[in-house]
Model the fold of this input.
Amino acid sequence: YSVDDRFGGVSSKDGGMERITEQIAKAFAAGAVSDQRDLKEILEEAGSEEAGEKFDRMLFDQARSAMKSEDMVYRYLENYDQTATADNLLTAGMLLKTPGTIWRNLRNIREKEKANYNVQASEGKDKKKKKAGAEIVGALDGREETQTAYESFKETLQNFLKDMTFETVQTSVDVKAMSMLYKQITFMGSMAKEENYEIPANINGSLTSINLKIIHDDQQESKVAISFEAEKIGRTAAEFKLENQGLTGFCISSSNQWTQLLKENKELFEKKLEEEQVPMGEIYFAAGEKLDLTEFSLKESDNRQTLGNSGMLYRAARAFIGYVQETGIKKGNTAYED
Done:
């Protein structure tokens, strides 16, 4: 196996049988899918027998799995003006259901590098990527600043994967893992340009992904939505918008204990907002055992528009993340990771 110039694709040795990966590549060469059935038909016609080798079989299974929730994934891609390629379907489905997976996979790759190769060099890369992750939150002054920081963060991770591929990859499964991670990071970069950011963080000792969205609607109103899931804390979702009396909104958690802790530290949130020069209005906290972060994300994204900058909402998001991080210290150490 060899990695091409774009690294997002993998070229295999020549063979007499057209592989399922090649069929999918052909079907999505134009970039967009005219009909959802296209991918279904390709998968059915190719069949698992033609995907005989492990690499092709794994991709086959992933694509079929993604199509089981096709309506949800297509809806998400449409809301963010992303083309419905096979790669985007897989990645969007993963981000909707288990967004923290990508950061854990990257961490596992780094740990493998430390165990098998140059530990000192690996630790140096860790420090650079941790700094890049923290800079995303530090850059939450507005859309332009945040997107610039995220682009740099994305390139850091992509270069890391390229280095790892040429230094450590030995099997087709390794190539597949690196390639899929590269594509997922590329997709997240595209989503960031639409003001939808996945930010890696360690909350209460649990590596997770904070999703931050700045959303505009056809009434030219804007709001920020933030969600994450962490061990021992559970699921958390928050929505805020600016009104005459200041920042208003709500925060829901699946954990009664975490909800109570957030309420008890509400003054910390107010202090963080004051530091960002954002006046605090009515903020409500509630516990909801059945909170579904996927549905929350889809609901918040419905019919979004691309409008002007919302610097104050970005700063409010930074205040909330800082508030959550510091409140999480009460349950364990908290620090940015990637």
Remarks:
- Confidence is low (pLDDT under 50) at residues 1-40, 45-52, 333-338.
- The first strand starts at residue 2 and ends at 3.
- The chain has 13 helices and eight strands.
- Residues 143-168 form the longest helix (26 residues).
